[in-house]
Amino acid sequence: MKTANININSNVKKKNKFVKYIKKNYILLLLLLPGFLSLLLFKIGPLFGMVIAFQDFSAFKGVFGSDFVGLKYFQRILSDPYMLTLIKNTLILAGLTLAITFPIPIIFALFLNEIRLKKVKNFVQSLSFLPYFISASVMVSIMYMILSPTSGIINELIKALGGDSVAFMSEAGWFRPIYIILQIWQTLGYNMVIYMAAITGIDSTLYEAASVDGANRWQTMFKVTLPCISSSVIVMFIISIGNIFTVDLDRLLLMYNSSVYETADVIQTYVYRIAFASTGMPEYSYGTAVNLIKSVIAFALVIFANKMAKKYSDTRVF
Amino acid sequence: MKKDKKINNKIGKVKPFDVINTIILLLVAIICVYPFLYIFFLSISDGKYLVTNQVKVFPMGVNFEAFKYIFTNKSLNIGRGMFNSAIYTVAGTITSIFITFSTAYVLTRKRFKGRFLIMSLFAFTWVFEAGIIPNYIILNALGFVDNPLVMIIPNAINTQFLILTKVFLEGLPDELEEAARIDGANDWVTMIKIFVPLSKTIIATIGLFYAVFIWNQYLVPQIYLKSAQYQTIQQILKQLVISSGSANTSFSTFVKNGISLNPQNLRAAAIFVAMVPIVCVYPFVQKYFKKGILVGSVKG
User: Mind listing the domains of chain B with CATH numbers?
Assistant: First the structure.
Protein backbone atom coordinates (compact mmCIF):
# COMPACT_ATOMS: atom_id res chain seq x y z
CA MET A 1 0.00 0.00 0.00
CA LYS A 2 2.67 2.36 1.06
CA THR A 3 4.84 1.89 -2.02
CA ALA A 4 1.84 2.34 -4.32
CA ASN A 5 1.04 5.58 -2.61
CA ILE A 6 4.54 6.82 -3.11
CA ASN A 7 4.40 5.82 -6.76
CA ILE A 8 1.17 7.70 -7.30
CA ASN A 9 2.54 10.61 -5.40
CA SER A 10 5.72 10.76 -7.45
CA ASN A 11 3.71 10.42 -10.65
CA VAL A 12 1.48 13.26 -9.60
CA LYS A 13 4.52 15.24 -8.64
CA LYS A 14 6.14 14.55 -12.00
CA LYS A 15 2.98 15.56 -13.78
CA ASN A 16 2.70 18.66 -11.67
CA LYS A 17 6.29 19.49 -12.38
CA PHE A 18 5.66 19.13 -16.10
CA VAL A 19 2.50 21.22 -15.98
CA LYS A 20 4.36 23.77 -13.92
CA TYR A 21 7.20 23.85 -16.46
CA ILE A 22 4.75 24.37 -19.29
CA LYS A 23 2.87 27.03 -17.35
CA LYS A 24 6.05 28.82 -16.47
CA ASN A 25 7.55 28.63 -19.94
CA TYR A 26 4.60 28.65 -22.29
CA ILE A 27 5.69 31.87 -23.96
CA LEU A 28 9.12 30.41 -24.60
CA LEU A 29 7.53 27.30 -26.07
CA LEU A 30 5.26 29.42 -28.24
CA LEU A 31 8.33 31.23 -29.54
CA LEU A 32 9.78 27.89 -30.56
CA LEU A 33 6.59 26.68 -32.22
CA PRO A 34 7.16 28.12 -35.73
CA GLY A 35 10.72 26.83 -35.79
CA PHE A 36 9.66 23.46 -34.44
CA LEU A 37 6.89 23.08 -37.00
CA SER A 38 9.27 24.12 -39.73
CA LEU A 39 11.75 21.47 -38.56
CA LEU A 40 9.06 18.81 -38.41
CA LEU A 41 7.28 19.54 -41.69
CA PHE A 42 10.00 20.79 -44.01
CA LYS A 43 13.16 19.15 -42.72
CA ILE A 44 12.16 15.88 -41.05
CA GLY A 45 9.04 15.29 -43.15
CA PRO A 46 10.99 14.86 -46.42
CA LEU A 47 13.24 12.29 -44.70
CA PHE A 48 10.16 10.12 -44.16
CA GLY A 49 9.11 10.93 -47.70
CA MET A 50 12.19 9.00 -48.82
CA VAL A 51 10.25 5.83 -48.08
CA ILE A 52 8.85 6.10 -51.61
CA ALA A 53 12.16 4.70 -52.85
CA PHE A 54 10.85 1.36 -51.59
CA GLN A 55 7.37 1.81 -53.06
CA ASP A 56 5.71 1.90 -56.44
CA PHE A 57 4.75 5.46 -55.66
CA SER A 58 1.84 6.93 -57.49
CA ALA A 59 0.72 10.49 -56.92
CA PHE A 60 -2.92 9.36 -56.79
CA LYS A 61 -2.43 6.79 -54.04
CA GLY A 62 -0.08 8.92 -51.97
CA VAL A 63 2.70 7.78 -49.62
CA PHE A 64 0.32 5.76 -47.43
CA GLY A 65 -1.59 4.10 -50.25
CA SER A 66 1.25 3.06 -52.54
CA ASP A 67 2.48 -0.54 -52.57
CA PHE A 68 5.82 -1.51 -51.12
CA VAL A 69 8.11 -3.19 -53.61
CA GLY A 70 11.21 -3.69 -51.47
CA LEU A 71 14.47 -3.13 -53.30
CA LYS A 72 13.03 -3.20 -56.82
CA TYR A 73 14.32 0.26 -57.70
CA PHE A 74 17.72 -0.39 -56.18
CA GLN A 75 18.03 -3.49 -58.33
CA ARG A 76 17.09 -1.37 -61.32
CA ILE A 77 19.93 1.02 -60.48
CA LEU A 78 22.38 -1.87 -60.61
CA SER A 79 21.15 -3.01 -64.00
CA ASP A 80 20.78 0.45 -65.54
CA PRO A 81 23.70 1.05 -67.92
CA TYR A 82 23.07 4.79 -67.87
CA MET A 83 24.06 4.87 -64.17
CA LEU A 84 27.69 4.38 -65.17
CA THR A 85 27.57 7.48 -67.37
CA LEU A 86 25.93 9.44 -64.56
CA ILE A 87 28.49 8.39 -61.96
CA LYS A 88 31.33 9.04 -64.37
CA ASN A 89 29.99 12.51 -65.22
CA THR A 90 29.39 13.35 -61.57
CA LEU A 91 32.89 12.32 -60.51
CA ILE A 92 34.63 14.00 -63.45
CA LEU A 93 32.77 17.26 -62.96
CA ALA A 94 33.34 17.29 -59.20
CA GLY A 95 36.97 16.19 -59.45
CA LEU A 96 37.90 18.67 -62.17
CA THR A 97 36.11 21.50 -60.39
CA LEU A 98 37.95 20.78 -57.16
CA ALA A 99 41.36 20.31 -58.78
CA ILE A 100 41.12 23.52 -60.79
CA THR A 101 39.22 25.86 -58.51
CA PHE A 102 40.91 24.93 -55.25
CA PRO A 103 44.46 26.28 -55.70
CA ILE A 104 43.60 29.50 -57.55
CA PRO A 105 42.29 31.59 -54.61
CA ILE A 106 45.25 30.50 -52.47
CA ILE A 107 47.71 31.78 -55.07
CA PHE A 108 45.81 35.05 -55.46
CA ALA A 109 45.55 35.51 -51.70
CA LEU A 110 49.34 35.07 -51.38
CA PHE A 111 49.98 37.71 -54.02
CA LEU A 112 47.24 40.01 -52.77
CA ASN A 113 48.87 39.96 -49.36
CA GLU A 114 52.04 41.35 -50.93
CA ILE A 115 50.23 44.50 -52.00
CA ARG A 116 50.83 47.09 -49.33
CA LEU A 117 48.51 49.83 -50.47
CA LYS A 118 45.46 49.09 -48.40
CA LYS A 119 43.15 50.82 -50.86
CA VAL A 120 44.24 48.60 -53.74
CA LYS A 121 43.87 45.53 -51.54
CA ASN A 122 40.32 46.45 -50.55
CA PHE A 123 39.43 47.43 -54.10
CA VAL A 124 40.54 44.06 -55.48
CA GLN A 125 38.70 42.18 -52.74
CA SER A 126 35.49 44.15 -53.21
CA LEU A 127 35.34 43.68 -56.97
CA SER A 128 36.28 40.01 -57.06
CA PHE A 129 33.80 39.21 -54.29
CA LEU A 130 30.75 40.60 -56.11
CA PRO A 131 30.01 37.63 -58.44
CA TYR A 132 29.49 35.37 -55.42
CA PHE A 133 26.16 37.09 -54.75
CA ILE A 134 24.88 37.18 -58.32
CA SER A 135 22.26 34.59 -59.21
CA ALA A 136 22.96 31.58 -61.38
CA SER A 137 20.42 32.77 -63.96
CA VAL A 138 22.20 36.08 -64.39
CA MET A 139 25.62 34.42 -64.57
CA VAL A 140 24.52 31.82 -67.13
CA SER A 141 22.59 34.46 -69.10
CA ILE A 142 25.73 36.57 -69.31
CA MET A 143 27.65 33.52 -70.52
CA TYR A 144 25.04 33.02 -73.23
CA MET A 145 25.46 36.64 -74.32
CA ILE A 146 29.26 36.62 -74.29
CA LEU A 147 29.55 33.23 -75.95
CA SER A 148 26.74 33.65 -78.47
CA PRO A 149 27.82 32.28 -81.87
CA THR A 150 26.25 35.22 -83.72
CA SER A 151 26.93 38.29 -81.59
CA GLY A 152 29.07 37.21 -78.62
CA ILE A 153 32.26 39.08 -77.93
CA ILE A 154 34.34 35.88 -77.68
CA ASN A 155 33.26 34.61 -81.08
CA GLU A 156 33.92 38.03 -82.57
CA LEU A 157 37.45 37.70 -81.23
CA ILE A 158 37.79 34.21 -82.68
CA LYS A 159 36.52 35.42 -86.06
CA ALA A 160 38.85 38.42 -85.99
CA LEU A 161 41.73 36.01 -85.47
CA GLY A 162 40.55 34.02 -88.47
CA GLY A 163 38.79 31.15 -86.70
CA ASP A 164 35.27 29.80 -87.03
CA SER A 165 32.66 30.72 -84.48
CA VAL A 166 31.92 28.08 -81.85
CA ALA A 167 28.47 27.28 -80.43
CA PHE A 168 29.91 27.03 -76.91
CA MET A 169 26.65 26.55 -75.01
CA SER A 170 25.43 23.66 -77.12
CA GLU A 171 28.62 21.65 -77.44
CA ALA A 172 29.06 18.84 -74.96
CA GLY A 173 32.82 19.29 -74.97
CA TRP A 174 32.53 22.87 -73.74
CA PHE A 175 30.14 22.14 -70.91
CA ARG A 176 32.71 21.32 -68.24
CA PRO A 177 35.11 24.18 -69.03
CA ILE A 178 32.25 26.70 -68.95
CA TYR A 179 30.87 25.26 -65.71
CA ILE A 180 34.32 25.50 -64.12
CA ILE A 181 34.96 29.02 -65.42
CA LEU A 182 31.67 30.09 -63.85
CA GLN A 183 32.68 28.37 -60.63
CA ILE A 184 36.00 30.24 -60.55
CA TRP A 185 34.30 33.51 -61.40
CA GLN A 186 31.74 33.08 -58.62
CA THR A 187 33.94 31.77 -55.82
CA LEU A 188 37.39 33.29 -56.36
CA GLY A 189 36.68 36.40 -54.27
CA TYR A 190 34.84 34.46 -51.58
CA ASN A 191 37.63 31.97 -51.04
CA MET A 192 40.24 34.71 -51.26
CA VAL A 193 38.54 36.48 -48.32
CA ILE A 194 38.73 33.28 -46.27
CA TYR A 195 42.46 32.89 -46.94
CA MET A 196 43.09 36.60 -46.41
CA ALA A 197 41.46 36.26 -42.98
CA ALA A 198 43.86 33.43 -42.19
CA ILE A 199 46.83 35.46 -43.43
CA THR A 200 45.85 38.47 -41.30
CA GLY A 201 46.05 36.22 -38.27
CA ILE A 202 49.73 35.42 -38.79
CA ASP A 203 52.03 36.68 -36.04
CA SER A 204 53.87 39.72 -37.43
CA THR A 205 57.05 38.89 -35.48
CA LEU A 206 57.56 36.00 -37.92
CA TYR A 207 57.89 38.50 -40.76
CA GLU A 208 60.26 40.67 -38.75
CA ALA A 209 62.40 37.63 -38.01
CA ALA A 210 62.37 36.68 -41.69
CA SER A 211 63.45 40.14 -42.78
CA VAL A 212 66.21 40.18 -40.15
CA ASP A 213 67.43 36.92 -41.64
CA GLY A 214 67.48 38.60 -45.03
CA ALA A 215 64.65 36.65 -46.63
CA ASN A 216 63.41 38.03 -49.94
CA ARG A 217 59.84 38.40 -51.15
CA TRP A 218 59.43 34.92 -52.57
CA GLN A 219 61.02 33.33 -49.55
CA THR A 220 58.64 35.15 -47.18
CA MET A 221 55.65 34.22 -49.31
CA PHE A 222 56.42 30.55 -49.61
CA LYS A 223 58.34 29.91 -46.39
CA VAL A 224 56.39 32.09 -43.95
CA THR A 225 52.93 32.95 -45.27
CA LEU A 226 52.08 29.67 -46.97
CA PRO A 227 53.13 27.36 -44.10
CA CYS A 228 51.29 29.59 -41.64
CA ILE A 229 47.98 29.22 -43.48
CA SER A 230 48.52 25.55 -44.29
CA SER A 231 46.08 24.40 -41.60
CA SER A 232 43.36 26.61 -43.14
CA VAL A 233 44.23 25.21 -46.55
CA ILE A 234 43.99 21.65 -45.28
CA VAL A 235 40.68 22.29 -43.53
CA MET A 236 39.25 23.94 -46.64
CA PHE A 237 40.42 21.03 -48.76
CA ILE A 238 38.84 18.47 -46.44
CA ILE A 239 35.59 20.41 -46.44
CA SER A 240 35.64 20.54 -50.24
CA ILE A 241 36.12 16.78 -50.37
CA GLY A 242 33.19 16.38 -47.99
CA ASN A 243 31.03 18.54 -50.22
CA ILE A 244 32.15 16.98 -53.48
CA PHE A 245 28.60 15.85 -54.27
CA THR A 246 27.25 19.36 -53.75
CA VAL A 247 26.94 20.72 -57.26
CA ASP A 248 25.44 24.05 -58.20
CA LEU A 249 22.16 22.59 -59.39
CA ASP A 250 20.76 25.98 -60.44
CA ARG A 251 23.72 26.56 -62.72
CA LEU A 252 23.64 23.00 -64.09
CA LEU A 253 19.95 23.18 -64.93
CA LEU A 254 20.33 26.57 -66.56
CA MET A 255 23.18 25.35 -68.75
CA TYR A 256 21.41 22.07 -69.38
CA ASN A 257 20.02 21.19 -72.79
CA SER A 258 19.70 17.95 -74.65
CA SER A 259 22.76 18.65 -76.79
CA VAL A 260 25.07 18.59 -73.76
CA TYR A 261 23.56 15.65 -71.79
CA GLU A 262 26.56 13.57 -72.74
CA THR A 263 28.76 15.52 -70.30
CA ALA A 264 26.26 17.58 -68.32
CA ASP A 265 24.02 14.84 -66.98
CA VAL A 266 25.01 14.20 -63.36
CA ILE A 267 23.08 12.40 -60.64
CA GLN A 268 21.21 15.49 -59.45
CA THR A 269 20.19 16.70 -62.90
CA TYR A 270 19.06 13.20 -63.84
CA VAL A 271 16.88 12.97 -60.73
CA TYR A 272 15.39 16.35 -61.56
CA ARG A 273 14.83 15.38 -65.16
CA ILE A 274 13.01 12.10 -64.58
CA ALA A 275 10.80 13.64 -61.89
CA PHE A 276 10.02 17.13 -63.12
CA ALA A 277 10.99 17.53 -66.73
CA SER A 278 10.05 14.25 -68.35
CA THR A 279 7.35 14.08 -70.95
CA GLY A 280 6.06 10.70 -69.74
CA MET A 281 5.08 9.63 -66.23
CA PRO A 282 7.34 11.21 -63.60
CA GLU A 283 9.52 8.52 -62.02
CA TYR A 284 9.39 9.60 -58.40
CA SER A 285 10.35 6.28 -56.85
CA TYR A 286 13.33 5.60 -59.08
CA GLY A 287 14.58 9.16 -58.72
CA THR A 288 14.33 8.95 -54.94
CA ALA A 289 16.20 5.64 -54.90
CA VAL A 290 19.04 7.12 -56.96
CA ASN A 291 19.13 10.18 -54.75
CA LEU A 292 19.03 8.11 -51.56
CA ILE A 293 22.26 6.34 -52.47
CA LYS A 294 23.88 9.66 -53.30
CA SER A 295 22.70 11.17 -50.00
CA VAL A 296 24.07 8.29 -47.93
CA ILE A 297 27.49 8.54 -49.57
CA ALA A 298 27.51 12.33 -49.31
CA PHE A 299 26.50 12.15 -45.65
CA ALA A 300 29.29 9.70 -44.83
CA LEU A 301 31.77 11.94 -46.66
CA VAL A 302 30.70 15.09 -44.79
CA ILE A 303 30.87 13.36 -41.40
CA PHE A 304 34.27 11.90 -42.21
CA ALA A 305 35.50 15.28 -43.47
CA ASN A 306 34.32 17.07 -40.35
CA LYS A 307 36.11 14.53 -38.15
CA MET A 308 39.27 15.07 -40.16
CA ALA A 309 38.87 18.84 -40.13
CA LYS A 310 38.56 18.83 -36.34
CA LYS A 311 41.91 17.11 -36.13
CA TYR A 312 43.51 20.00 -37.97
CA SER A 313 41.76 22.88 -36.29
CA ASP A 314 39.96 23.89 -33.14
CA THR A 315 36.97 25.32 -34.97
CA ARG A 316 33.74 23.91 -33.66
CA VAL A 317 31.43 22.72 -36.38
CA PHE A 318 28.03 22.62 -34.70
CA MET B 1 56.39 65.25 -50.32
CA LYS B 2 56.07 64.50 -46.67
CA LYS B 3 53.42 61.91 -47.34
CA ASP B 4 55.51 60.26 -50.05
CA LYS B 5 58.38 59.91 -47.68
CA LYS B 6 56.16 58.33 -45.10
CA ILE B 7 54.87 55.74 -47.55
CA ASN B 8 58.38 54.98 -48.73
CA ASN B 9 59.51 54.41 -45.18
CA LYS B 10 56.68 52.08 -44.56
CA ILE B 11 56.87 49.95 -47.65
CA GLY B 12 60.53 50.26 -48.47
CA LYS B 13 61.58 50.58 -52.07
CA VAL B 14 58.95 50.04 -54.74
CA LYS B 15 60.25 47.16 -56.81
CA PRO B 16 59.17 45.94 -60.25
CA PHE B 17 57.53 43.04 -58.43
CA ASP B 18 55.14 45.43 -56.67
CA VAL B 19 54.19 47.17 -59.89
CA ILE B 20 53.57 43.96 -61.83
CA ASN B 21 51.77 42.32 -58.92
CA THR B 22 49.47 45.31 -58.47
CA ILE B 23 48.70 45.47 -62.16
CA ILE B 24 47.93 41.75 -62.40
CA LEU B 25 45.62 41.76 -59.39
CA LEU B 26 43.82 44.88 -60.57
CA LEU B 27 43.35 43.16 -63.92
CA VAL B 28 41.88 40.10 -62.22
CA ALA B 29 39.48 42.29 -60.27
CA ILE B 30 38.43 44.09 -63.44
CA ILE B 31 37.95 40.81 -65.32
CA CYS B 32 35.63 39.71 -62.50
CA VAL B 33 33.30 42.67 -63.00
CA TYR B 34 33.86 43.40 -66.69
CA PRO B 35 31.09 41.03 -67.88
CA PHE B 36 28.58 42.92 -65.73
CA LEU B 37 29.75 46.24 -67.15
CA TYR B 38 29.68 44.81 -70.67
CA ILE B 39 26.03 43.81 -70.19
CA PHE B 40 25.27 47.27 -68.86
CA PHE B 41 26.98 48.90 -71.85
CA LEU B 42 25.01 46.71 -74.24
CA SER B 43 21.76 47.62 -72.54
CA ILE B 44 22.27 51.38 -72.84
CA SER B 45 23.77 51.35 -76.34
CA ASP B 46 21.99 52.05 -79.58
CA GLY B 47 21.21 48.79 -81.38
CA LYS B 48 22.77 49.93 -84.63
CA TYR B 49 26.24 49.79 -83.01
CA LEU B 50 25.53 46.33 -81.61
CA VAL B 51 24.80 44.86 -85.03
CA THR B 52 28.29 45.78 -86.13
CA ASN B 53 29.79 44.68 -82.80
CA GLN B 54 31.34 48.01 -81.95
CA VAL B 55 30.41 48.08 -78.27
CA LYS B 56 33.16 46.52 -76.22
CA VAL B 57 34.62 48.69 -73.51
CA PHE B 58 32.26 51.67 -73.50
CA PRO B 59 28.63 52.29 -74.48
CA MET B 60 27.72 53.99 -77.78
CA GLY B 61 24.66 56.11 -78.46
CA VAL B 62 23.62 56.08 -74.82
CA ASN B 63 19.86 55.80 -74.24
CA PHE B 64 17.42 54.04 -71.96
CA GLU B 65 14.89 52.90 -74.57
CA ALA B 66 15.65 49.22 -73.95
CA PHE B 67 14.67 49.55 -70.28
CA LYS B 68 11.53 51.48 -71.16
CA TYR B 69 10.61 48.82 -73.68
CA ILE B 70 11.09 45.79 -71.43
CA PHE B 71 9.06 47.36 -68.65
CA THR B 72 6.23 48.65 -70.82
CA ASN B 73 5.88 45.54 -72.94
CA LYS B 74 3.67 43.44 -70.67
CA SER B 75 4.01 40.25 -72.70
CA LEU B 76 7.65 39.94 -71.60
CA ASN B 77 6.56 39.67 -67.96
CA ILE B 78 9.67 41.45 -66.72
CA GLY B 79 7.74 43.96 -64.65
CA ARG B 80 5.68 41.22 -63.10
CA GLY B 81 8.75 39.04 -62.49
CA MET B 82 10.51 41.88 -60.70
CA PHE B 83 7.40 42.62 -58.66
CA ASN B 84 6.91 38.97 -57.67
CA SER B 85 10.57 38.54 -56.76
CA ALA B 86 10.47 41.71 -54.68
CA ILE B 87 7.37 40.57 -52.79
CA TYR B 88 8.80 37.09 -52.15
CA THR B 89 12.09 38.58 -51.02
CA VAL B 90 10.61 41.13 -48.62
CA ALA B 91 7.97 38.80 -47.15
CA GLY B 92 10.37 35.86 -47.04
CA THR B 93 13.14 37.84 -45.39
CA ILE B 94 10.87 39.19 -42.65
CA THR B 95 9.40 35.75 -41.97
CA SER B 96 12.82 34.12 -41.98
CA ILE B 97 14.36 36.67 -39.63
CA PHE B 98 11.52 36.28 -37.17
CA ILE B 99 11.45 32.47 -37.17
CA THR B 100 15.22 32.05 -37.23
CA PHE B 101 15.80 34.56 -34.45
CA SER B 102 13.11 33.27 -32.11
CA THR B 103 14.20 29.66 -32.68
CA ALA B 104 17.82 30.54 -32.00
CA TYR B 105 16.71 32.49 -28.94
CA VAL B 106 14.86 29.53 -27.43
CA LEU B 107 17.67 27.14 -28.33
CA THR B 108 20.15 29.27 -26.38
CA ARG B 109 18.03 29.40 -23.16
CA LYS B 110 19.69 27.06 -20.69
CA ARG B 111 16.41 26.23 -18.95
CA PHE B 112 14.98 24.84 -22.17
CA LYS B 113 15.68 21.13 -21.85
CA GLY B 114 15.18 19.91 -25.42
CA ARG B 115 17.65 22.29 -27.03
CA PHE B 116 20.36 19.75 -27.81
CA LEU B 117 17.93 17.31 -29.36
CA ILE B 118 16.33 19.98 -31.56
CA MET B 119 19.68 21.41 -32.62
CA SER B 120 20.92 17.94 -33.52
CA LEU B 121 17.85 17.37 -35.66
CA PHE B 122 18.48 20.64 -37.47
CA ALA B 123 22.10 19.67 -37.99
CA PHE B 124 21.27 16.16 -39.16
CA THR B 125 18.65 17.27 -41.69
CA TRP B 126 21.14 19.84 -42.95
CA VAL B 127 23.85 17.30 -43.69
CA PHE B 128 21.60 14.44 -44.79
CA GLU B 129 19.63 15.74 -47.74
CA ALA B 130 16.31 14.12 -48.52
CA GLY B 131 16.50 15.43 -52.08
CA ILE B 132 14.11 17.29 -54.31
CA ILE B 133 11.54 14.52 -54.86
CA PRO B 134 10.65 13.73 -51.19
CA ASN B 135 10.51 17.49 -50.62
CA TYR B 136 8.10 17.81 -53.49
CA ILE B 137 5.90 14.97 -52.18
CA ILE B 138 5.61 16.64 -48.75
CA LEU B 139 5.13 20.18 -50.05
CA ASN B 140 2.58 18.92 -52.56
CA ALA B 141 0.62 17.25 -49.76
CA LEU B 142 0.73 20.53 -47.82
CA GLY B 143 -0.60 22.49 -50.78
CA PHE B 144 2.53 24.41 -51.77
CA VAL B 145 2.48 23.53 -55.47
CA ASP B 146 1.76 26.62 -57.54
CA ASN B 147 1.37 28.56 -54.32
CA PRO B 148 3.57 31.66 -53.90
CA LEU B 149 3.97 30.85 -50.19
CA VAL B 150 6.48 28.19 -51.28
CA MET B 151 8.99 31.04 -51.62
CA ILE B 152 8.37 32.22 -48.07
CA ILE B 153 7.54 29.38 -45.68
CA PRO B 154 9.33 26.06 -46.38
CA ASN B 155 12.81 27.60 -46.39
CA ALA B 156 12.15 30.06 -43.58
CA ILE B 157 14.88 28.45 -41.50
CA ASN B 158 18.24 27.97 -43.12
CA THR B 159 20.27 25.84 -40.71
CA GLN B 160 23.48 27.67 -41.55
CA PHE B 161 21.99 31.04 -40.60
CA LEU B 162 20.34 29.49 -37.54
CA ILE B 163 23.75 28.36 -36.32
CA LEU B 164 25.17 31.81 -37.04
CA THR B 165 22.44 33.45 -34.94
CA LYS B 166 22.80 30.87 -32.18
CA VAL B 167 26.56 31.44 -31.93
CA PHE B 168 25.93 35.17 -31.67
CA LEU B 169 23.27 34.82 -28.96
CA GLU B 170 25.52 32.48 -26.98
CA GLY B 171 27.94 35.37 -26.73
CA LEU B 172 25.45 37.58 -24.88
CA PRO B 173 25.51 37.32 -21.06
CA ASP B 174 22.77 35.32 -19.27
CA GLU B 175 22.49 38.01 -16.60
CA LEU B 176 20.54 40.16 -19.06
CA GLU B 177 17.70 37.68 -18.98
CA GLU B 178 17.76 37.30 -15.20
CA ALA B 179 17.63 41.05 -14.73
CA ALA B 180 14.63 41.30 -17.03
CA ARG B 181 12.85 38.47 -15.18
CA ILE B 182 13.36 40.18 -11.85
CA ASP B 183 11.74 43.26 -13.36
CA GLY B 184 8.77 41.05 -14.23
CA ALA B 185 9.26 40.81 -18.00
CA ASN B 186 8.05 37.64 -19.72
CA ASP B 187 10.01 35.76 -22.40
CA TRP B 188 8.48 37.64 -25.30
CA VAL B 189 9.18 41.04 -23.77
CA THR B 190 12.69 39.99 -22.79
CA MET B 191 13.47 38.82 -26.30
CA ILE B 192 12.01 41.85 -28.06
CA LYS B 193 13.09 44.58 -25.65
CA ILE B 194 16.44 43.27 -24.44
CA PHE B 195 17.90 40.81 -26.94
CA VAL B 196 16.70 42.15 -30.28
CA PRO B 197 18.27 45.61 -29.80
CA LEU B 198 21.55 43.95 -28.85
CA SER B 199 21.42 41.69 -31.91
CA LYS B 200 21.10 44.33 -34.62
CA THR B 201 24.32 43.17 -36.31
CA ILE B 202 23.32 39.53 -36.58
CA ILE B 203 19.78 40.42 -37.65
CA ALA B 204 21.14 42.65 -40.41
CA THR B 205 23.57 39.91 -41.42
CA ILE B 206 21.08 37.07 -41.70
CA GLY B 207 18.47 39.43 -43.17
CA LEU B 208 20.79 40.32 -46.03
CA PHE B 209 21.81 36.69 -46.54
CA TYR B 210 18.19 35.58 -46.67
CA ALA B 211 17.25 38.40 -49.04
CA VAL B 212 20.05 37.56 -51.49
CA PHE B 213 19.25 33.85 -51.17
CA ILE B 214 15.53 34.29 -51.90
CA TRP B 215 16.05 36.76 -54.73
CA ASN B 216 18.54 34.45 -56.44
CA GLN B 217 16.57 31.22 -56.11
CA TYR B 218 15.91 29.40 -59.34
CA LEU B 219 15.29 25.71 -58.57
CA VAL B 220 12.41 26.14 -56.10
CA PRO B 221 10.26 28.45 -58.25
CA GLN B 222 11.10 26.35 -61.30
CA ILE B 223 9.72 23.22 -59.63
CA TYR B 224 6.78 24.75 -57.77
CA LEU B 225 5.64 27.91 -59.55
CA LYS B 226 4.46 27.01 -63.02
CA SER B 227 1.75 29.65 -63.50
CA ALA B 228 2.99 32.70 -65.37
CA GLN B 229 1.43 35.02 -62.81
CA TYR B 230 3.68 33.74 -59.98
CA GLN B 231 6.99 33.50 -61.78
CA THR B 232 10.15 35.17 -60.51
CA ILE B 233 12.54 37.36 -62.47
CA GLN B 234 15.11 34.54 -62.52
CA GLN B 235 12.64 32.28 -64.34
CA ILE B 236 11.67 35.05 -66.76
CA LEU B 237 15.34 35.67 -67.48
CA LYS B 238 15.89 32.03 -68.28
CA GLN B 239 12.99 32.10 -70.76
CA LEU B 240 14.06 35.34 -72.42
CA VAL B 241 17.80 34.83 -72.65
CA ILE B 242 18.61 31.15 -72.31
CA SER B 243 15.69 29.12 -73.65
CA SER B 244 15.02 31.33 -76.66
CA GLY B 245 18.67 30.90 -77.70
CA SER B 246 19.29 32.02 -81.24
CA ALA B 247 15.64 31.68 -82.26
CA ASN B 248 14.53 35.17 -81.35
CA THR B 249 11.00 34.35 -80.45
CA SER B 250 10.44 36.99 -77.80
CA PHE B 251 12.60 39.79 -79.15
CA SER B 252 12.95 41.25 -82.60
CA THR B 253 14.75 44.19 -84.09
CA PHE B 254 12.87 47.46 -84.54
CA VAL B 255 13.35 51.19 -84.31
CA LYS B 256 11.74 53.23 -81.56
CA ASN B 257 12.18 56.99 -81.06
CA GLY B 258 15.04 56.92 -83.54
CA ILE B 259 16.87 54.28 -81.46
CA SER B 260 17.40 50.82 -82.85
CA LEU B 261 16.43 48.06 -80.42
CA ASN B 262 17.49 44.50 -81.09
CA PRO B 263 17.44 41.20 -79.16
CA GLN B 264 20.93 41.87 -77.88
CA ASN B 265 20.33 45.11 -76.02
CA LEU B 266 16.88 44.02 -74.88
CA ARG B 267 18.32 40.83 -73.38
CA ALA B 268 21.15 42.78 -71.81
CA ALA B 269 18.61 45.14 -70.24
CA ALA B 270 16.67 42.18 -68.82
CA ILE B 271 19.85 40.70 -67.30
CA PHE B 272 20.82 44.05 -65.87
CA VAL B 273 17.52 44.70 -64.08
CA ALA B 274 17.68 41.20 -62.54
CA MET B 275 21.02 41.96 -60.90
CA VAL B 276 20.48 45.60 -59.94
CA PRO B 277 18.92 44.86 -56.52
CA ILE B 278 21.87 42.65 -55.58
CA VAL B 279 24.40 45.24 -56.72
CA CYS B 280 22.55 47.85 -54.63
CA VAL B 281 22.71 45.86 -51.41
CA TYR B 282 26.20 44.52 -52.13
CA PRO B 283 28.09 47.16 -50.09
CA PHE B 284 26.08 46.17 -47.01
CA VAL B 285 26.31 42.46 -47.71
CA GLN B 286 30.06 42.73 -48.01
CA LYS B 287 30.31 44.60 -44.74
CA TYR B 288 28.45 41.91 -42.83
CA PHE B 289 29.72 38.95 -44.74
CA LYS B 290 33.19 38.69 -43.26
CA LYS B 291 31.67 38.26 -39.82
CA GLY B 292 29.79 35.16 -40.82
CA ILE B 293 32.16 33.65 -43.31
CA LEU B 294 34.02 31.26 -41.03
CA VAL B 295 30.92 29.65 -39.59
CA GLY B 296 29.35 29.61 -43.03
CA SER B 297 32.23 27.94 -44.79
CA VAL B 298 31.89 24.69 -42.87
CA LYS B 299 29.34 23.08 -45.15
CA GLY B 300 28.62 24.37 -48.61
Answer: 2-76+244-296 (no CATH), 78-229 (1.10.3720.10)
